Amino acid sequence: MADDVPTQAEADEFRAKVRAFLSENTVPDADYAQQQAFQGKLAEAGLGGLVFAKEYGGAGLTKAHDRIMREETARFPTMNNEFIISHGMCLPVMNDFGTEEQKRTFLPDIISGRALWCQMFSEPGAGSDVASLQTKAERDGDEWIVNGQKVWTTLAHKSQYAVLIARTDPEAVKHAGISMFVLPMDAPGVEIRPIHQIDGGNHFNEVFFTDVRLPADHLLGELNNGWNQATAMLMYERVAIGTVGGGKISQPNFKTLKAAATAGDTLDDANVRQDMMRIYSMETAKSLMAMRTRAEMKAGRAPGPGGSLGKLFGSVIQWRMREILMNMAGPASQAWNEGDDDGYELARQTIGSFSSSIAGGTDEIQRNIIGDRVLGLPRDIAVDRGVAFKDTKVGTQRS
Fold it and tell me: Is the pTM for the entire model greater than 0.70?
C-alpha cells in the first residue's frame, strides 16, 4: 500500500472517477451474479482492493482513497452483500498471514470476485466457545487429513474456498492447539447441506468433512497459531458487520419504520413517532461509531476489541426494531401473503433480526469482550484453563 497522501486535486479526481463508475455500474437489489460482475469491473477499473498491493491484484492506493471510496459507495445501491465475508474477513486475513505464494495465488481472485470465500469456525458444541472445536486436521506426509463438521457456514453453497480452523494438537490447551487452513470447497470428502430458513432462504449451511486431504501448503499462517489468527479474523468480522455503511451517517431502519407507519396510517401517533426517533438516534450514534472505527483503521491501527461495540450496538438496534415492528404491524410483521413483496420484506426483516445477536459472535460474547478487553473488568472463571483439550469435557466431545 502506498504511504503518500493524495493532494486535494488528486483526491477530487479520484472521487469523480469513483462516482462516475458507481453511477454507471450499480443497480438496486443486485443478485449474486450482478455483484460478482461488479467486483470484476471494479478490479479492471483499478478500484478493487484499494489498499492491497498491485502484485496481489489490488490497486496499491492509500487509506485516504479507501475512505473516499466508502463515502461514495454509501450513496449508491449496495453491490457487495454477498462479498462481505470474502472481502471483509478472508481477504485481510490472507493478506496478514498468507505466504508470498498464497497471496499471489489467492488474493487476485478474491479481490476481483472470481472466487467467493466463506469462513468455517462454528461447530455443534462450539458456537460461542469456538475454541472448543473438534474438527481435526492430522498430518500425513505432504498432506493434512481433515475430519469433522462445521455449522452456520454462511454462503458455503456458493463459495469456492473457505478459511477453516481445525484442531492440530489435542495435547495442548484448547486455544493453543488450533491451526488455520485454506479449504477448496470442491475437495473430495466435503459435503454441504443447506439449512432452510423460516423466511424461505438458505443462507447458512452445515458442512461435513470425511477424510478430506489438503496439500501441506494449504496451512494458512503458523502451525498451532490458529486461535490468534482466528481472533484477528473475528475482529475484522465485527468491524465489517458493525461498520456497514460506515462512509456516512445513515438510518436505514428508521426509513423502514417510516414506510411501515405511512402504510399503516400511524405516522401521526405520538408513541410511534417516539419509537421511530429512538431508532433514528441510535442509528445516528452507530454511524458515528462506525466512522470513528474506520478513522482508527485509516490511521494504521488494526481492528481491536472496540469493534465489538459497533457489532453489539447493531444487534441492540435490531431487537428494538423487531419489537417496534411487531407493535406497529401486528401479525403482518411476521407473516405475509404469497405475492405480497412489501409484506414479505417487512416480515423478513422482523424474522431475520434474530440472527444479528448471533452472527459474528453472540451479544453475550461481545459484552464479555468489551468488559474484559475494553473496560478492564475481571474475566469470567474458566474451569478448563491449563487443561489439555483431550482431557476437557466440552460441547459434544466424548471420551
Answer: yes
